[in-house]
Design a protein that fits this description.
It is a single chain. The strands form three sheets. This protein has a six-stranded mixed sheet, sandwiched between helices. It starts with a strand and ends with a helix. It folds into two domains: 2-221, 3-Layer(aba) Sandwich (Rossmann fold), CATH 3.40.50; 226-295, MTH889-like domain (Alpha-Beta Plaits). The longest helix has 12 residues, at 135-146. The protein is α/β, with parallel strands linked by helices. It has eleven helices and 14 strands. The structure holds adenosine-5'-diphosphate (ADP) and magnesium ion. The site of magnesium ion has 5 residues, from helix 1.
Length: 312
């Protein structure tokens, strides 16, 4: 439903996102998870045709963001980071106004607004001035405008930021209810938030996609597991033979660095550093380097959970 390939965007000389690639299936809720300044908003602005990428391509519901930008916008509902609300309008007037901008047919206007009012559970504040509503209600009005005309695709930029725990649960439930009828991309810098709402997660950090998987798989990887990188002198045959007996290796890649030297990348949910070093040395091979991948998911997870405490 959404295909993103190699998106890169510069703001002046600053690279905000770099080679971002992912897909979203029809009816799926995808979480875009990353700390502040990771590039979430930039990615969403590109997918909603708010601005173009510097390079790369993307299709939304089959429409190209360059070639068919109006079609993309027609089938997409967007809740930006700062909801575009008119503070001195009533909820109802505002939604009718947005519906007219979105070209809702005149005879469907009332029923369409009724339908999003119900979905966002804002019936009791329909006739209130938006500026006087609580932050949670304002956010729901923003969500309601994004659902006008029943868009196939809904893109929500940090929809729970700044809300209290009760409001977060309410918004989360509203978003979960969109599943199946809409394809949803939701951004957040809070891991549990994404875990509870999304079926698949793309983790983005410093403009790059660093992992994508189901929340369960990611949690499993985050709990244990690290990558050990070795540089070993010796033939790749001898290296493979030497490492064969070590228990607990989930995955092993061998790359040739230069003649007689190989780089070995080992994934495991155990700490295998000691076993690896011993085995290499005992086999008469030269251990040139042994490091743990400094960019593990755990680092990102830590960064994310640290930020989470400010909200929870
Ligand atoms: N309009 C802009 N002009 C210059 N730099 C920007 C602009 N918008 C975002 N950036 C920079 O691009 C990077 C990614 O920002 P953003 O996409 O807003 O991240 P996120 O939404 O994940 O917090 C950040 O370093 C940010 O400072
Ligand atoms: Mg943002």
């Amino acid at each position: 439903m959404i295909e993103v390939e190699g998106l890169t965007r510069y703001y002046g000389a600053k690279k905000a996102i770099s080679d971002v690639t992912f897909q979203v299936k029809k009816g799926e809720i995808l979480g875009l998870l990353g700390p502040n300044a990771a590039g979430k908003t930039t990615t969403m602005r590109i997918l909603t045709c708010f601005m173009p990428p510097t390079s790369g391509k993307a299709t939304v519901g089959g429409y190209d963001i360059f070639e068919n930008s109006i079609d993309v916008r027609r089938i997409t509902g967007y809740l930006p980071e700062n909801p575009p609300l008119y503070m001195d309008m009533t909820t109802r007037d505002y939604l009718e106004f947005v519906a007219r901008i979105k070209e809702t047919p005149k005879d469907k206007l009332i029923s369409e607004v009724d339908s999003v009012v119900e979905k966002a559970a804002i019936g009791d504040v329909q006739n209130r001035i938006i500026g006087k509503l609580s932050k949670g209600y304002k956010q729901r009005v923003g969500l309601a405008q994004s659902l006008l005309n029943n868009p196939q695709i809904v893109i929500l930029d940090e929809p729970t930021v700044g809300l209290d725990p009760k409001q977060i649960i309410e918004i989360r439930d509203l978003i979960r209810n969109l599943k199946g009828d809409h394809t949803v991309i939701l951004s957040s810098h809070i891991l549990p938030e994404i875990e509870q709402t999304c079926e698949r997660v793309v983790i983005i950090n410093q403009g790059k996609v660093v992992a994508q998987d189901t929340p369960e798989e990611l949690t499993r990887k985050l709990k244990g597991g690290e990558k050990v990188i070795l540089q070993i002198e010796g033939s790749s045959e001898d290296i493979k033979k030497a490492l064969k007996g070590i228990k607990g290796i989930d995955k092993m890649d061998i790359e040739k660095v230069k003649q007689g030297v190989s780089k070995i990348i080992i994934e495991s949910d155990k700490d295998l550093r000691k076993d690896l070093a011993q085995k290499v040395v005992n086999s008469g091979l030269g251990l040139l380097e042994l490091t743990v991948d400094k960019f593990t998911l755990e680092d990102i997870f830590l960064e994310l959970t640290t930020k989470e405490e400010e909200v929870a």
